[in-house]
Amino acid sequence: MREGDGAFRARGNAEHWTEMTYGGALSFLRRRYSRDLDGVDVAVMGFPYDASVTYRPGCRLGPRAIRAASVQLAELKAFPWGFDLLESLAIVDRGDALLDPHHPETVAPAIEAAAAEVIASGARLLSLGGDHFIAWPLLRAHAAKYGPLALVQVDAHGDLWPDDPGRIDHGTMMGRAIREGIVDASRSTQVGIRTYHDDAMGLEILTAPWIHRHGIAAAIEVVRSRAGSAPVYLSFDIDGLDPAFAPGTGTPVPGGLASWQALELVRGLAGLSLVGMDLVEVSPPFDHAEITALAAAHLAHDWLCVLAAAAGAAGQAVGRL
Q: Taking CA atoms, which of 128, 225, 244, 245 is between 20 and 30 Å from 281?
């Protein structure tokens, strides 16, 4: 019987090991740590960097916290689908990218190179941040393979503020990505926004108040209509959630999405051409009872479930959904 520390001891990518929920080697969903991408469908990778924040630090510790918060999700079949993820997806935890904050000019190239290696293998990349600046090199790596991307950005902030060459800032990089042509603004949607920008740069902006009035189903319809058949990249800043559901973040803004709305949104992306995801800005020093990390782990897990369903995973729903 396979018992204990499967993250280190497993030899295959679909093995289940018996673990104490509160013990054992931590990895995302208890997947084995591996740099070998042969036969891998999804690689999970941490990018522990937070030197470009504008307010509270700490999200360099986000990947570790999200991994720890994912342990219960590894124990049962996925809700609400009722299937075992590993029957349809080979998933590994690739560990963290090695980044040197003392040479900040090297960080973005290092992130892009680490992402490009995964993408070149044919695997999809689930990236755990880290602050939101990491999305820019991640978008560059994905666009190099897939072409201009339809961005679905869940966030309290649009990250479209004035930029300048060489700037390392978690509030300007989405505007940069649009200007560089790696994001197709005409196909892209920002969800949950509740800060002001002078220029939407061609994006559809669904503010949090609009979503609260019209419902998450209406938001999903807009996102799906705009994305169409384009390659879709999901960039999820945890501060897209209201601080009541995600206090552990650097720039919290009241009035955001509830965790149930965010989960419904991710599940509502089923059928789109999903090529990558990042989950960023989880700052454990400001968290309470791990609720921010738990929300992040569940959101990332549900994105994987959408991929599994697209790969043919069949389950059975229990109860009214």
A: 225
